[in-house]
Each structure stands twice: as C-alpha cells, then as structure tokens.
Amino acid sequence: MNSSTALAPEVESILAAARERPGGDTPLEVAPRPFSDALERAETDGRVPVIAEVKPTSPTADGTREDDPVELAEAMVAGGATAISVLTEPTHFGGSPETLTRVREAVDVPVLRKDFLLREEQLDVVEADLVLVIARFVDNLADLVTAARDRGFQPLVEVHDEAELEAALEADADLIGVNNRDLARLEVDLGTFESVSADVPDDVTLIAESGISTPADVRRMRAAGADALLVGSAIMDHGAEEADVEANTRRLTRSTVEEET
C-alpha cells in the first residue's frame, strides 16, 4: 500500500536506502517467543506492557547513544519491558542485524526487528520473534504479512490512518501498531491512536507507537485501548549519555490508569 501524500525528506532518504539493501539468500525458519504470552505475563505481574526500543540514534533524536546494545536491552528487561525492539536499519538509525542477534541471545523476552522492509527476501536477513511491516511502504501488504508468518515471524503491521488500518485488517493482521508520528511532517499527535483505533475488532492486539514519554501518556494510550506501547526515545534519552535506561523503563511499565498522586 502506497500513499500519494508526500513523505518528509528524512523518510524518503530512509526508503531510498531500504530499496538498495539486499535480502537473504534462503527463507528463514523461526521458532518465535509468543508475544501474547509475554503480554499475559506482564498483565499478571501488574506491569504495563512496554516494547522498549534499542535505538542508537534516529533522524528525530537529539544525539547518539554509544552504549553496548546488549547492556541496554538487559537494563530494559530489568525495568520490566515486555519485549525489546531492535533497529536493524544501519544508515539512519545505527542498527544492524548482528545487534539484534546479540540482543536476542541475551534476553528471554520476544524481540522485534524494526526496519523498513519492502520485499519478501528482506525478511530473511536475521531471526527475530516479531517483525515490523509498515503498511504505507509495502506494495502488497497481504503477501508480505503471509510471507512473514510462513517463516515463523509474528508480523506487527504499522498504520497511521484509517485507510492503512483497513488495509491491515484486509491483510489479516492481528497485531497492529498505530504510529502517532506523521511521516509526512514528522509531527507527533497522541490523538492519532485514539481516532484510528476506535473501531478495531476486539481480537486484534493494538500497540501505540511514538510520542509516549510520561506516565500520563501511558495512561492516556491505555485508556484508549492500547494493549501495549512501543517506546524508544523516552527510554533511550539520546540527549543524556548517562541516562538510566532501567529506571526510565520502570517509570513507564509501573504506570497505572489512575492519576498520579
């Protein structure tokens, strides 16, 4: 699915690089850690389900984190993260497939591969438990979702508006992330999740993405129906090299829907 709306130059640059990146030689066979089980464990433990993101940098970040990604991921899990997201895009986010492999070997929670995947063979670069598929960037969404499942991946289909949500549902997506960031202007509006997710079927797991920085943001997204939250910059805190990633994670995973006292 491709939109006629112009993308921000930063996003166009990311996509141009993604088009040039090769895929794997043979289809992978993945034995995934079930994300649904991880969600259930978090809820039973009284934690807000948070997918914490290992993201060294990004076009919207204030700086770069040079920490060992494995140590960051372990700190996030210690802080209560339900799953870990790892950027594998090298040019704009400082990620790599090798980093994902190292993180997945070090933690016992599901690991999401976050990248800009455009073709089926790009799934075959590295094993992960979940894989991000961005509806706006894919020509045949249903085929890519099916290809991901055939390999054992749990596809997380990202949408931003009602048209993309409809396409995701038509592609039989049962794990959908609503990105609060507008890729045309790179602006964030938490109201995006509230409006787009209003009519999603109950059997779809919903994840709120982008712009979630405070316990109040967590409560707002949960009240709007988010089953989990994907949080990167607020945990990584790119502007502060010594930021406590474990504490940042715990601050969000221990949020509640009640008002702070």
TrEMBL record:
User: InterPro entries recorded for this chain?
Assistant: Aldolase_TIM, Indglycph_syn_Halo_TrpC, Indole-3-glycerol_P_synth, Indole-3-glycerol_P_synth_dom, Indole-3-GlycerolPSynthase_CS, RibuloseP-bd_barrel
- Catalytic function, reaction form: 1-(2-carboxyphenylamino)-1-deoxy-D-ribulose 5-phosphate + H(+) = (1S,2R)-1-C-(indol-3-yl)glycerol 3-phosphate + CO2 + H2O
Q: Where is this region: Disordered?
A: 1-35
Protein EC: 4.1.1.48
- Gene Ontology molecular-function annotations: indole-3-glycerol-phosphate synthase activity; phosphoribosylanthranilate isomerase activity
Superkingdom of the organism of origin: Archaea
Q: Give the record's keywords alphabetically.
A: Amino-acid biosynthesis, Aromatic amino acid biosynthesis, Decarboxylase, Lyase, Tryptophan biosynthesis
Q: Which residues form a coiled coil?
A: none
Per its UniProt record, what PROSITE patterns does this chain match?
Answer: IGPS
Gene3D superfamilies the UniProt entry points to = Aldolase class I
| Biological process terms in GO annotation | L-tryptophan biosynthetic process
**Pathways involved:** Amino-acid biosynthesis; L-tryptophan biosynthesis; L-tryptophan from chorismate: step 4/5
EC class (word): lyase
Q: Which CDD domains match?
A: IGPS
What residue stretches are annotated with the Indole-3-glycerol phosphate synthase domain? Answer: 27-244
Q: Which family does it belong to?
A: Belongs to the TrpC family.
Supply the name of the protein.
Answer: Indole-3-glycerol phosphate synthase
Name its species: Natronobacterium texcoconense
Question: Its encoding gene is what?
Answer: trpC
